[in-house]
Amino acid sequence: xxxxxxxxxxxxxxxxxxxxxxxxxxxxxxxxxxxxxxxxxxxxxxxxxxxxxxxxxxxxxxxxxxxxxxxxxxxxxxxxxxxxxxxxxxxxxxxxxxxxxxxxxxxxxxxxxxxxxxxxxxxxxxxxxxxxxxxxxxxxxxxxxxxxxxxxxxxxxxxxxxxxxxxxxxxxxxxxxxxxxxxxxxxxxxxxxxxxxxxxxxxxxxxxxxxxxxxxxxxxxxxxxxxxxxxxxxxxxxxxxxxxxxxxxxxxxxx
Length: 255
Ligand SMILES: [Zn+2]
Ligand SMILES: [Zn+2]
What we know:
Blueprint: H1 2-12, H2 32-38, H3 62-66, E1 73-79, H4 82-91, H5 97-115, H6 121-126, E2 128-132, H7 137-141, H8 147-159, E3 168-170, H9 182-189, E4 193-195, E5 205-213, H10 217-228, E6 233-241, H11 245-248
Parallel strand pairs: 1-6, 2-5, 5-6
Antiparallel strand pairs: 3-4
Helix pairs in contact: 4-5, 5-8
The structure holds zinc ion (2 copies).
One zinc ion binds next to helix 2.
């Protein structure tokens, strides 16, 4: 019955790639070409996910040496460029719900392959909660999509980890970070977040979801606040890792 209903639905509205709209013959969300470009196996720093030249050892990168990250690791589908960048810019539009779900599905897949293969991940997974980098309340007033919130909800649904919404509150609007230097960004986000019900987070592993990590200042500040409340570990899960200043200067890139 379900199969025939699906066949009928496919006849009326055949499955198509969520990015390029190419018709699909199987039950996938993206065509092969888009999938390969959205999830790349780029050479990256294992701590902050920044792309590094293949000659640089994985455990060390310039960004990590300069920054005082409070998070434990960053997982990203790929660098913020090419088709992934286009998809992220598009998915911020309020009506692109399906594209947000598709990208979240890819992020959940990344999580499976990376965290599950990590030593000690079994124990960590038992204590994992999923949450997102919050927007300032004025963001919703403008009719903008809560991209990070929707990604987190879909990732929680797909992985089975509990979703904790409203756990982090942004008390100041810090969205205009594009033109600031690293130290200015750090100052700009300092004490811009509050943690609600911190007792519920003690000894937990927090999976902090966002669309793009550019300078890392926002995620580092949230991680600092979380760890003040005895959070055991913070993994930042993003669709893309920003690579430099070009994309940071667009108003669409998050801090
Ligand atoms: Zn496609
Ligand atoms: Zn790094």
